[in-house]
Structures are given as C-alpha cells and as structure tokens.
C-alpha cells in the first residue's frame, strides 16, 4: 500500500513539476530530429532484436558444444555465412549469441554504475558538508583511474564469470555518474524553485527525486549511452584477456582470443565478431554523441 | 616561479591518497579471490608447510588493517612478493619489463599526436567541408574500434597476408615495434583529433584572431603563429588522460603482438594464476596513471599561470 501511495505521489508531481515524463518526451522529440541519434538508435534496435531473438532464429545453438572435425575452419559460404571456427561451430550463430552476452553484461553494469553513482552523487551534491567531502573525495579517486585497469584488477581477482564481469565494470565505472550527478545537484540546489518547495515543506528526498533528478536526466541519458559503449569494449577486452566471460559462453572477446590462434589459416574467425562489436559500440556512441549535441551543446568534449 | 613550485608541491601531496587507493585496491584483490588467500600466494605444487609460511610472512592471520600496513611496509622496501611460477621477485620481473612498455607508449603517443594534431587542425580550418566530415567519420570509427581488434586486423593484413611485418615478439628490431605502436597510436588519435578540432575552432573565433586578420597579417601566420599556439595547449595537457588510455591499451596490444612488456606479463600471469605478479603489474600500471595525471597538471600550470592560484 505504501508503495502505491509513493508511486501516486510521483505521478502527480510528474505533471506538476515538468519532471520525468516531460523531460523524457523532450529528449525523444529533440533526439528524433538528429541523424546521428536516428542511426545509432536503429543499430541498437537491430542488435537488441538479434539478442532477444537468438534462440528462435534458424541458427545452430552454440551452447551445445558439438565438435565436428569435418566442419572445422570452413571459409564463409551459403551454409555458414561467417564460416566455422576451430571446433566446427558456426561463427555467425556464435556472433549472434555473443550479442546477448555483451548487451546483457554492458547494460546491467551500466545500470549498477548508474544506481551507485546517482545515489552517491545526489547525496553529496544535495546535502553538502561532511557527506560531500567524503563522497566527492572517493568519486575523484575512482575517477582518476582508467576504468579498464580497475576492471581488470577486479576481474582478475574475482575470476571469470558473467556476474564478476558485471561487478568489475560497475565498480570501476560508477565514478563518472557520481561526478556528473553531484555537479548537477550542486547547480540545481541553488535554483529558486528548490527553495520554494522547501518553503512549502517538502522533504529532502522528495525534492531530490522530483526536482533534482529530473533535471539530470538529459546528461545521464547521454552518459549512460556512451557508458554502454564503453562497457561493451571493456567486457570484450576482459574476455579477450581471459579475465572476463568464461570460455564456455560465446562472447565476442573470447571468440577473438580463440581466433587469434588460427589467424594464419582462418581470417573470418577474427574478422566477423569484431565487425559486429564495432557496429554495436558505434551505435551506442552515435546515440550518445547525437543526444549530447541536441540536448546541450556545452557538454561537447566533456567525455574522457 | 614560487607559485609554480607551491602548486607542484600541492599536487604531489594530493597524489598521495590516489597512490594509497591504488595500493589498497591491489591489496584488496588478494581477499577478493575465492577461497583461502594464502593459496593464491603459493605455487601450484606446495606443501601445507609452504602455506603456513606464506600465512606467517604476509600476516594473513592478523586483522585486515595490520595486513595492509605490512603490505605497505613491504612495498616501501620494494618487495612486491615472489612469483609463484618463476620463483623470482615480482619487482625484479616488473622492472625488467618496464622499459619495453615505456618504449611502446612513447612511440604510440608520438604517432597519436602526429596523426591527431594535423587532422584536427585541418578539420577545424575547413569546418563542415568534405574533409571535415571525413575526419569526423574517422574519429567516430577509430574511437569505437576496440584496440585489440584493430591490432588483430593490422596483424592480419600486414603480417599474415602481406608478410611485410613480423607477427609479433620484439626480436625483429624496428620492424616489430611498428604494428603495436601504430595500433596504440591510431586508437588514441581519435581523441586527440577531436580535442584539437574543437580547441582550434574555439580559438579561431576569438577576438584577437579577428584583430590580427583585420591588421592584414597573412592567414598562414595568423593560424600557425598565433592561433595554434593557444589551441594546442589543451591538447598537450591532456597527456595525462592519454597515458591512462595507453595503460589499458598496452595490456591488450602487448598481448596480441607478444610484446615482452608489462601488459603481456599481466596476461600471462592471469593465465598462469600467478597472483603476486598480477598484483605487481597492476600497481605499476596504476602508478603510470598517477604520474600521467601529475605531468598533465604541471604542464597545465606551466602553460596557463592562472591555474597555479586555483
């Protein structure tokens, strides 16, 4: 019951304060006029569709590891569009199934980073004082380090598993969101409508969620999009190094690692997973860059 | 000058917590491993006595803060533990590989700047032209391209198909350093190009440029003597970020091209479960990043005196 009441409150305030819904509509309407956003979104839709439909497509199931010596390292043909790998598995189907792994890992990792970053950044920026001092310091420390190195340290220690990769990326990527959120909260806090709602007796958490957070949706969307692209790259790099997705699960990174051993005889094994990887990363980068351009030209060049 | 020195000292002091965080994360890695941490520090073939000895040496029965203190104390004495596969000291191993990685980074950085700076200038001076569009497409693709795949493609083309360059290793002299450094440089040049372009665009719109033009200075002189001087500063000062990027890139690129540096050492040690070496390498790479950030801060203060007072 309590939950419903809170949800209701949020729904009302959406209308009253021009909150989440209006911001989201604004993003969509402005974004749809930008060609980069359109191209990026189309790529992402195709990739997500492939990932979701993988089990229903008429392709071999790569999770059933059948070793077929006859079918080993066959070049691309009508039957195997992307050729076959060293154990005779269809590269095309493995690439499609790899989409599932990459997109799942990347979006979950960014979701966790977003939750950690938004919570900490909002708390620090809105309340200030000692909390801000400690949190901002921590954010800066994590921000200084390249995400890939941190993720490698965590992934190497935790051992290869999907959950560990997600954890490793989240722990090393949240600082960007925290930094962004803190800056926005600091800026919004001083605006008059915040003071007005405080004067009306609104509680801190309520102000944060109904006024401060919606104001940060635009930059957060941009960062989340670019973040997914980064997370896909980190996941594939970790898997390539043997510290990410376990070898039994088809992922672009470990396919490329395996393909490296046969680079002299089978160019297709190292080429196609990379092409799809590049297109996917490009899709999220295009979406992020395009959104940034239409939402706030001043944010150009802010990304590291 | 005095303000510059006090600025540098301040930055050095501020780097201490970052260094401590790095050591703490590397220390924590041991406790994130599954099962008994002592088992991560002994060779695959060990006796119970070995495990006990390690436990005693690293104080693994003590509380965490005591262990961390001990870890720092050993670090201060240059002791990063012993490799469990080669039985040599980790610091010896790491410092033996260090020059190779530095070499790769230095050449890679040079390549990145020699591609990125001219492209960025060209793109800014011909804004919205076909050349500009082309450069922007290049940066989009180069930025999205994971460095390990770029490395694989270059290897496929120049080593496997054309046989112009060696597949990997460092025995081929100059020829063997080309592919790894180009891989690193090309990947990073996307960022340099973008920064150079936006910085140049900004500077060329400034009043002093218009004023120089109206005084009738040749365009070439306006651009290269007066515009570039200011526009290039932000590009050079992000060298710290570049080093951060190169640290990650070095690990994968060295792995692909079997380059005998720290990155390759990390990869091999992960495969061999040589935990102390993984720890040592990551710590050294993290120090690279700290040093890179310091260099960037100092360069920035030299270039722009206003920063020193902030």
Observed structural traits:
heterodimer; A: 304 residues; MetI-like fold; B: 310 residues; mainly alpha; flat
Shape of chain A: elongated
| Structural classification of chain B | mainly alpha
- Indicate the multimeric state: heterodimer
Q: For the largest interface in this structure, which chains are involved and how many residues does each contribute?
A: A-B, 43 and 50 residues
The strand count of chain A comes to 0
Question: Would you list the SSEs of chain B in sequence order as H and E?
Answer: HHHHHHHHHHHHHH
In this structure, how is the largest beta sheet of chain A organized? none
- Average pLDDT number of chain B: 85
Structural class of chain A: mainly alpha
CATH class label of chain A? Mainly Alpha
Helices of chain B, by number, come to 14
Give helix and strand order of chain A, one letter per element, not per position. HHHHHHHHHHH
Largest sheet of chain B: none
Distance between the termini of chain B: 15 Å
Q: Do you know the CATH architecture of chain A?
A: Orthogonal Bundle
Helix content of chain B: over 70%
């Amino acid at each position: 019951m309590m939950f419903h009441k809170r949800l209701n409150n949020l729904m009302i305030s959406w209308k009253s304060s021009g909150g989440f819904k209006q911001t989201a509509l604004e993003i969509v309407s402005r974004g749809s006029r930008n060609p980069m956003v359109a191209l990026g979104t189309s790529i992402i839709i195709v990739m997500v569709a492939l990932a979701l439909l993988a089990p229903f497509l008429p392709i071999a199931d790569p999770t059933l590891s059948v070793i077929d010596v006859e079918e080993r390292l066959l070049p691309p043909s009508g039957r195997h569009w992307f050729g076959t790998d060293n154990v005779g598995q269809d590269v095309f189907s493995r690439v499609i199934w790899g989409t599932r792994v990459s997109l799942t890992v990347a979006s979950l990792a960014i979701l966790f980073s977003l939750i950690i970053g938004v919570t900490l950044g909002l708390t620090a920026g809105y309340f200030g004082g000692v909390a801000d001092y400690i949190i901002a310091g921590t954010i800066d420390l994590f921000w200084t380090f390249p995400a890939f190195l941190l993720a490698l340290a965590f992934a190497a220690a935790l051992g290869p598993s999907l959950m560990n990769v997600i954890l490793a990326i989240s722990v090393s990527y949240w600082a960007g969101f925290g930094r962004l959120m803190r800056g926005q909260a600091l800026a919004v806090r001083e605006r008059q409508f915040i003071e007005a709602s405080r004067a009306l007796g609104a509680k801190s958490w309520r102000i944060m969620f109904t006024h401060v957070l919606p104001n940060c949706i635009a930059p957060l969307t941009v960062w989340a999009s670019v973040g997914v692209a980064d997370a896909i790259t980190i996941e594939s790099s970790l898997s390539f190094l043997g510290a990410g997705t376990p070898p039994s699960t088809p992922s672009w990174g470990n396919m490329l690692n395996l393909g490296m051993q046969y680079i002299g005889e089978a160019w297709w094994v190292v080429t196609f997973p990379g092409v799809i990887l590049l297109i996917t990363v490009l899709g999220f980068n295009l979406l992020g860059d395009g959104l940034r351009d239409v939402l706030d030209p001043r944010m150009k060049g802010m990304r590291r | 000058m005095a303000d510059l020195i006090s600025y540098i000292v301040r930055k050095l002091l501020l780097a201490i917590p970052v260094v401590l965080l790095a050591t703490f994360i590397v220390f924590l890695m041991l406790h994130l491993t599954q099962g008994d941490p002592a088992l991560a520090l002994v060779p695959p073939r060990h006796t119970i006595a070995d495990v006990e000895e390690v436990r005693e040496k690293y104080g693994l029965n003590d509380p965490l803060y005591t262990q961390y203190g001990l870890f720092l104390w050993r670090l201060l004495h240059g002791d990063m533990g012993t490799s469990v596969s080669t039985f040599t000291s980790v610091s010896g191993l790491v410092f033996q590989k260090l020059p190779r990685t530095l070499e790769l980074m230095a050449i890679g950085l040079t390549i990145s700047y020699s591609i990125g700076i001219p492209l960025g200038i060209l793109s800014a001076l011909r804004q919205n032209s076909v050349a500009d569009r082309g450069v922007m497409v290049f940066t989009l693709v180069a930025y999205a391209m994971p460095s390990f795949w770029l490395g694989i493609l270059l290897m496929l083309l120049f080593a496997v198909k054309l046989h112009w360059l060696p597949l990997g290793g460092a025995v081929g002299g100059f020829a063997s350093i080309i592919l790894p450094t180009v891989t690193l440089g090309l990947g990073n040049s996307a960022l340099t190009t973008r920064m150079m372009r936006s910085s140049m665009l900004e500077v060329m719109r400034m009043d002093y440029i218009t004023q120089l033009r109206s005084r009738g200075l040749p365009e070439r002189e306006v651009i290269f003597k007066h515009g570039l001087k200011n526009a290039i500063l932000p590009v050079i000062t992000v060298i710290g970020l570049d080093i951060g990027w190169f640290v990650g890139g070095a690990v994968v690129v060295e792995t692909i091209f079997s380059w005998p540096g720290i990155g390759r050492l990390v990869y091999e040690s992960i495969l061999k479960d040589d935990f102390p070496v993984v720890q040592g390498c990551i710590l050294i790479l993290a120090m690279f990043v700290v040093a890179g950030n310091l260099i960037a801060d100092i360069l920035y203060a030299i270039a722009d005196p206003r920063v020193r007072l902030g």
